[in-house]
Amino acid sequence: MEKLSYQWSENLADTPKETMQIFEHLGFSSIMSKLIVQKGIHNVESAKKFFLPKVDQLYDPFLMKGMEEAVDRIAQAITNGQKILVYGDYDVDGTTSVALLFSFLEDLGISVSFYIPDREKEGYGISSLGINYAHQNNIKLIVALDCGIRSVELVQKAKNLSIDFVICDHHIPGATLPDAFAILNPKQKGCNYPFKELSGCGIGFKLCQAIASRLRLDSSTYMDKIDLVAVSIAADLVEMNDENRVLTFLGMKKLSENPFGGLRLFRDLVIGNRPVKTHDLVFKIGPRINAAGRVFHANQSVKTLLYGGQEHFDKLNALNKERQELDQHVGKQALAMLSKDTKSTVVFQSDWHKGVIGIVASRILEHAYKPTVVLTEKSADILVGSARSIPNFNMYEGLNKCADLLEQFGGHYFAAGLSLKKNNLSAFKQRFEEVVSQTLIDIDFVPKAIYNSELKLEEITGKLAAEVEKLAPFGPKNMRPIFLIKQVENYQYQIIGKGNHHLRLEISHAGQKINCIAFQMAHHAQKLNLKVPFDLFFHLEINDFRGRKNVQLVVVDIKF
Fold it and tell me: For residues 497 and 518, is the Cβ–Cβ distance under 8 A?
C-alpha cells in the first residue's frame, strides 16, 4: 500500500521582522530566526531558556496534588522497615519507570522489589495476581507507575488486605478515583501542577525528587537516572515542550556522556560514539525495550536497564527481531482487511499476537487515515484491542460512547486500549462507526500537514542543518521543521531496501549534490522515470555515518 500523501499549507504564524532581527543579531540565519519565532519565542530571555534548558527550570514536585501524602507514606515505610513493591506497566514508559524508582529506593537501602504484569496472563495495569504476590510476600505498600488510575476495584481489594497504594499515572482519570493512599496525576481534578503532560516515568522522577528533598539527599540520587526519563518521554510520544523538553534535553546529555546502568549498552552498541538524538530513543532504544513485554516478559527489559550485561542485551535484540517478524506478518493480514466504504477501521483475527496489535494499529493509520481499532482474542469469549486516532477525533471519548459494549477501556486522545466480549464485536463495530461518522466530516479524513518555510536549493547548507539541530529535542509540540523546495528538476533516484519500498534521491543544483532518503515512496518511481518536476517536502538533518557527516534530506512527501 502507498504511504499517505498530505494536504499541505504554510505555517502562517506571525513572524514580525523586528522580532526576527533580534535573533539575526545573535548570529542566527534569517531562516533559523523565522523558525525560532514560529516556536513562540519572541525575546532573548525565552530563547535562552529554550536553547539552554537547566535543572533550575524543573518545577517543585510538591506542587503536585498528593505528593506530600506519597512522600509521607514512603517515609513511613522506610521508618517501619516495610517492604515496597514497585509495580509498572510492560511498555517503555512503564519499564523505565520501574527501573528508575526501584534503583532510587534500592540505593537508599530500602527493602524493595518490582513487579511487571504478564501481557498474556494479566493484561494491562494492576492485576489480581500482582496484588496476591504482594500479599504473599508481606508487602504493605505498592507504588504503581504508568498505571492504576482506573483500577478502582483492585486498589480496594489491596486495601482490604491492608496494602496501601501510591499511584503515579499520567493517563486520563475516570469519574471515580481509586481509594489509594496517594495519587500523583497532574490530570486529576484539583491538581495545580504547572505541567500536565509528564510521562509515567516523569511522574516517578518527580516522586524521587520529592523524596530526596524531604530526606535532604543530594540531587545526584535522582539526576543520575534522568536518561531513563528521556527515553520514556520520547518513546511514549508525550508533548516535547515545557518540563518534558527540559527533562529530555538533560537526559539525552546524560545518555551521551555517562548512561545509567544498562543504557550504556544501548548507547555503545546501538547508537555509537556520537550525541544522542530523539530519533535514537524512539526507533532504536524504545523498540528493543518494548519487545520483551510484547513477545516475552517485560522483566527482561527492567533487568537489562538496571544491570546491563551482554546476555540481557542480546536477549532483547533477539526478542525485537521476533517482534518485527510478528509485526510484519500481522500487519500484512490486517492491511488486507481494510475497507474503503467505512469511516472507521475495526479489524479482528483470533490468532494475532497481542503484543503487536498496537504497532499494527499505528501502521494501518499510515495507510488508511481514519480512527482504527485492532482486536485479537484474549480468551474464548474476551477480545482485547489497541486503538489509534486522527486529529479531530478523541479516541478516549469515542470509546466512552461505546462504554456499555466494552469490558474495559482507557488511554489518551490519540491512543487507547480496550477489551470487550466476543459477542459484542458486531454491535461495537456498528456503534463505533456511528460515533466516528457523527463526529467527523469528509475533510477530516484528508491528512493535513504544515511546512515551516520554503527554501531554495542553494540555501541548504551544513550551517543551516546545524542550526536546525539546536531546536532539538524534537517530538509532539516541538516537531522537527519541515521545508519545501518547489519544482525539483535535476535528480537521480534508486529503489532501495528490503522489499524495494524506499527511494534514495540525489538532487543537484549548480554543481551541488544533495542526498535524500524517502521511506515507503518507491511507488513514485514511474513518474520519476518520466523526469517530471516535483515539489519536495522534507526534514533537514545531518547524517553522521561512521564519523562522516553530511547534509541529508529526509523526505516527508513528494507532490508532482
Answer: no
For residue 415 the three cell numbers come to: 491512543
- Whether residue 212 has pLDDT greater than 90: yes
Averaged confidence pLDDT in the chain: 95
Cα dihedral value 505, 507, 512, 516, nearest 10? -40
Write the CB contacts of 178 (distance below 8 Å, at least 6 apart in sequence): 148, 149, 150, 151, 152, 154, 155, 156, 165, 167
* pLDDT tens digits, 59-98: 999 999 999 999 999 999 999 999 999 999 999 999 999 9
Q: Say whether both 45 and 129 belong to one domain.
A: no
Nearest to 542 by CA among 475, 489, 463, 427: 463
pLDDT for the residue numbered 2: 66
Q: Read off the amino acid at residue 418.
A: L
Are residues 88 and 226 located together in one domain of the fold? Answer: yes
Q: DSSP letter string over 255-297?
A: HHHS--TTHHHHIIIII-SS---HHHIIIIIHHHHHHHHHHS-
Tell me how far apart the alpha carbons of residues 543 and 510 are, in angstroms, rounded to a whole number.
22
How many Cβ atoms are within 10 Å of 510's Cβ, its own excluded?
A: 7
> Is the model's pLDDT at 5 over the cut of 70?
yes
CB 491 within 8 Å of CB 507: yes
Residue span of the structural domain in which 408 resides: 337-445
Q: Domain total for the chain?
A: 3
Give the pTM.
0.92
